[in-house]
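Here we describe the complex-level prediction in full. Unlike the single-chain runs in Section 2.1, the two entities below were treated as one system.
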Amino acid sequence: MQPKKLELVCPAGSLPALKTAVDNGADCVYMGFRDDTNARNFTGLNFAFDNAKEGVRYAHAKGKKVLLALNTYPQDEGWQRWTKAIDNAAELGMDAVILADPGLMQYAAKTHPDLRLHLSVQGSATNYEAINFYHEMFGIRRAVVPRVLALAQVEQLMAGTEVEIELFGFGGLCVMVEGRCALSSYATGDSPNTRGVCSPPKSVRWQETPKGLESRLNGILIDRYDADENAGYPTLCKGRFDVQGETYYAIEEPASLNTLELLPELMRMGIAAIKIEGRQRSPAYVEQVTKVWRQAIDNCQRDTGAFAVKPSWMAELGKVSEGQQQTLGAYYRPWK
Amino acid sequence: MKLALGPVLYYWDRDTMLSFYDEMADAPVDIIYLGETVCSRRHLLRLQDYLDMAERLAAAGKEVVISTQTLIESEYDVKTLRKIAENENFRVEANDMGAVRLLANKLPFVAGSTLNVFNPPTLDFLAGLGAARWVMPVEMSRESLVSILRNRQSGIETEVFAYGRLPLAFSARCFTARHHNLQKDDCQFKCLDYEDGLALKTREGQPFLTLNGIQTQSALVHNLIGELDTLQDAGIDVVRVSPQAHHTGEILRLFREGMEQRLTSAQALAQIEDLMPAASCNGYWHGKPGLDFIRNTR
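The structure predicted for the assembly as a whole is:
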């Protein structure tokens, strides 16, 4: 049996990144507007309306889709910013919007019934009852599943729903259930849910000290590096901490998710799409990762049985991985 | 305002749990939330045990609510959820949208804080499905809450997490097992050894977080006992205290006395400090980082 077509969904933090993704084999790109309506609300990133328009034109001209992430939780004081973003998405001809908030889904479903809705990973839906809920209430067509389920659990989930499933395949790894993590606001005041950011750059301080290079988030020591160690961005769950006198990566090592070797299994299961994380990353990253994943998916689609991960792919992806380390994350049960 | 006791977030042995709730039957609390909300591997009390306990507490005059697990991963978890939703005697706190699907348009339910209600349309939507009460997200500020309550259509009750280590994050991974170099599937129930969770400090000794199995909590104790007047003014209906291993009954008593204005907020704050496992924080309520503490100057 010919395996179902697996879409490659690539990050576009800017117009150059979008074009790079499209030119290197992405089936879809996903983007956000330039404000807190999306969960990569970083300075210098994302799209103003006209930029987005050019992005959609470029992708559609090459037969590719554009998805718009509106995946933060609208705060009451800015509600109109989110509904306006939905209206803009419809006007721009986005192929789908990726949402987390039920109130916003209700608005989208009522106001723009033809606009395709995807459930964001920030919606924290880890079971088919939750996914079916969003489907029945708002007609969502696809759900992006948090990076917390083992592969067998994903398969169980898929048996209980008609909704398409999109999984994260590569990139930065959230170890917490997305949408249910307030660690960042506890430390800094801003979080993915409230401001579309995690461990925001404005709270980061680097300091050379006699004990080594220190990274701090709002004054909290996240990590300290010896001269021979590579320093990483102080995402607060990826620091080294002290638990009962032992200093280690108590929550998670700085590593990137990489599921290349699971491709045949993901195709067999009928996963609709693989998402590459990294809207905050450079066009060079997007090019590298899109190329490798395009080749891998095409190889696997041609002959699933003979699929083998090429060392060169792993080497390429290794170069752009956090801390140069890669993991299968929760898909591999013993990781938990 | 009514006073509520949240579900026990830690893993205590069976006898400890039974005697804890025997004590709570006589505690000055109106509402008791019961159930395992953190990890399905914690099995010393089964759902039936919780339902039996619920009967006893209801007989003692408490409003009892059964709380559902927050992270639903397996078919087993879904089955448990279904059993809870099908119980006809007790109100249920839905901590996942899967639970909402099973409870919608049946008995009134409580929309738990992890449902992420951040705006009036979402609140009204859940009220329309039968939510009689909602618990605001722990990271929400007073200002945002007041704005939501001003602009909502529904008359749903509002509850605030007002005391306890903040449940900040949930993961597939068990950090307590990880600390012991164990996999979650073979965790040897190490959570039993940490009655108030496992302390995580920075490398310079600052208490930062608390590991509680797959849940990560704050190291500091979120404490709004000094803010009872601002909670009242904001239009809060229910104030929640989260259980800790020791002194929970006394903490409830202080909250009750504060709510009845038999203690000033300064007096209540001074008296509660000796009963706490760590220092206070209340930044979220003030729109600041959650770990900040701002003294009420009213």
